[in-house]
Amino acid sequence: MTTIDPITVEVIGSALQSIVEEMGEALVRASYSTNIKERRDCSTALFDRHGNTLCQAEHIPMHLGSFLGVIGAIYGRFKMNDIKPGDVFMANDAYAGGATHLPDIVLAEPIFVDDTLVTWAVNTAHHSDFADRGHEHIYQEGLRIPPVRLYREGVLNQDLQEMFLLNCQVPRERLSDLRAQMSANRLAVQRMQDLCGKYGTDKVLAAGEALQDYAERKMRAGIAAIPDGTYSFSDQFDSNQRGDRIRLSVEITIAGDEMTLAFDGPPQLRAGLNLIYTSLLAASYFAVKSVVDPTILPNAGLARPLTVTAPKGSILNCEHPAAVDGRIAAAQRVCDLVYGALAKALPGRVMAAGNGCCTGAIFNGTHEDGSIWVYLETIGGGGGARPSADGLSGIHVSLTNTSNLPVESLELEYPLTLMRYELVDDSAGAGTWRGGMGVRRVYRAEKACRFTVEGSRVASEPWGLDGGTSARGTVLDFGDGRTDFAGMVDLKPGQIVSITTPGGGGYGDPAGRDPAAVRRDLAEGRISAATAERFYKQ
Fold first, then answer.
1. pTM beyond cutoff 0.90
2. N or C: at which end does the chain have fewer Cβ atoms within 10 angstroms?
C-alpha cells in the first residue's frame, strides 16, 4: 500500500472536495429548468472504484440516498471488464437503480487513468416532471430506469434517450438538464485525471482511503464521548396523503465507540411516503453527523461505526412495489427522531425540532401551443431554537437545502402570480430562545391548471425542548373556505391558494427569555401581544 503523509492527504482531500463543488456549479449554470438553475435541487459526488463515497458537495443531504446504491446497482448489471471510458450510466429506480425516487435521475460516469478505473463521477438532479400522478405504488409514479448506458464509450444511445424523453411531460427541459448533468460529470473526469497526473494515481487513491479512515476515527471519537446506554424517542408523522397519524420511533444504543439506531414504524403504505433503506441511511447519517460532530468529512468512513435497522416491509424500510415519491416527508421525521433521542443523551447539544417537513407545491398545465408545463417548488419553514440562540426563519431544515424560486423567475416562466411571500407571525415556538418563523406563499393561477401539495406537520407540531413550546403546523387555504389538504385540485383562472409552513420549536422556559428580546419581537411583528402575554408575561 502506498504510504502518504497527512499534509498530502489534506491537500488531495481539498482537491477532491473542490472537484465536487465545481461539478455542482457547472450543473447549476448549465441547466435549463428553474428547479435546478434557480432552486439548485441537485447534488454531486465522487465515489471510489468500490462504490464507497469519497466526497459529496454540500448540496442536498437527502441525495446521499440516491447515491449510496447506484454504483452497486451498476456492478450488479454490468461486468467490470465491460465498463469502458466514456460510458455514462443513467438510473432513477428505487428498487433496481440504487436511487430513492423517480424524479431524481442519477448519471454516473467511470473515471479511468491509464486504462484503469479509479473513481466514479456521480450527480443527481431533481427533474420537474412526472407530475399529476397517483402514489399507491411505484408504477404510478413515473418511468422506472434501472442502470442503463446513456452513452457507450462516448457515443450517445439515441434510442434510449428518445424513449426516455417520450415518457416525459416536458422533454425540452429534460434534455437540457441531462446535458447539464453530462457536462458536470465530464468536468469531474478531466479534473480527476489532472489530479492523478499531478500526484500519481496510487497516491490519490491512498489519500481517499486515508480520508475515509479519518472520518471513521472522528465519528468513533464523537460516539465514545456520549454516555453508554439506550435512548428512545417517538414522534407523530402525518401527511396530506393520509388522514391518520402514524407513530414512528427509534431506540439509539451507545456502546463504546459504536452506535445502533433501531427504528420502528407501521407496515409500508399505499401512498408515496415510504423510505427505501438507502433513504433511511441517508437521513440517519446526516442527523447523527450533525449532532456528534458536524466537521466529520461526508464520506463512507463516517458510516462504519453506525448500524441502522428498521423492519423490512415497513414505512421506513419498504419493499417493492411501495410508492416512494414523497419519501422526504418521512425522512425528515427520521431526523426528528434521532434529534429527540440524542437530546436525552446530550443535553444542551441538540436544537428543538425544525419545521420537520418539506412542503412541496406542484402546478401543471398546458401552454397555448399544447405543450405541458410543470412548476415544482419545496418551501422552507422555521428552524428549531438552539440551546443558545433563536431558530432561523424561512429555511429548509435537515435533509433539504434548496433555494427558493425568486418571484421574478416564477412569474416570467409560468402562468402564476405570487401575491404574498412572507414570514408568518406567531408561527414559532416560544422559549428562552424562540423558534424560527414559518413561511406563507400565496399563488394566483392566471390560467387553468392542476395543483398538488405535499406536506406534513398538518395534525402534529414541531416540538420544543427543555420547556420550550411547540410551533404551529402547516395550513393550506384555497381562498374559498376550503382547507382540505388532500389530493389534487383543479384551479380556475384567478383562483388563489395559500400555503403556510410550520415554524420551529422553542428551547428553554419562556420565562427565561430576555425581556428586551420579547419587546423587540413585538416591535418587529414576530409575535403577537397575546403570545407575549401568554408565554412571556409581557
1. yes
2. N
In order, the DSSP letters of 269-288 are: -SSTT---HHHHHHHHHHHH
User: What's the rounded Cα separation, in Å, for the pair 129 and 145?
Assistant: 14
Q: Is 227 helix (H, G, I), strand (E, B) or coil?
A: coil
Which amino acid type is present at position 439? V
Say if strands 475-477 and 449-454 run parallel, antiparallel, or are unpaired: unpaired
Query: ∠ at Cα 392 (100, 243), nearest 5°?
Result: 50
Strands 258-264 and 306-309: parallel
Q: What DSSP element (H or E) covers 33?
A: none
CA 212 to chain centre: 23
Which cell numbers in the block locate residue 144?
A: 422506472
pLDDT < 70: residue spans in the chain: 1, 480-487, 538
Identify whether the C-beta of residue 230 lies closer than 8 Å to the C-beta of residue 251. Answer: yes
Element (H, E) at 444: strand 439-445
Q: pLDDT by residue (tens digit) across 289-344?
A: 999 999 999 899 999 999 999 999 999 999 999 999 989 999 999 999 999 999 99
| CA gap 256, 229 in Å, rounded | 10
Q: How many CB atoms lie within 10 A of CB 399?
A: 23
Report the distance separating Cα 9 and Cα 218, nearest Å: 16
Q: How far apart are the C-alpha atoms of 276 and 478, rounded to whole Å?
A: 33
Which grid cell sits at 111? Answer: 473515471
Strands (E), 115-267: 116-126, 148-152, 155-156, 229-237, 246-255, 258-264
Amino acid at 229: G
- Which string of DSSP letters, residue by residue, matches 338-405? HHHHHHHHSTTSSPPP-----EEEEEEEE-TTS-EEEEEEEE-BPPPPBTTBPPPSSB--TT--PPPP
* Dihedral pair phi/psi, residue 276, rounded to 5°: -80, 170
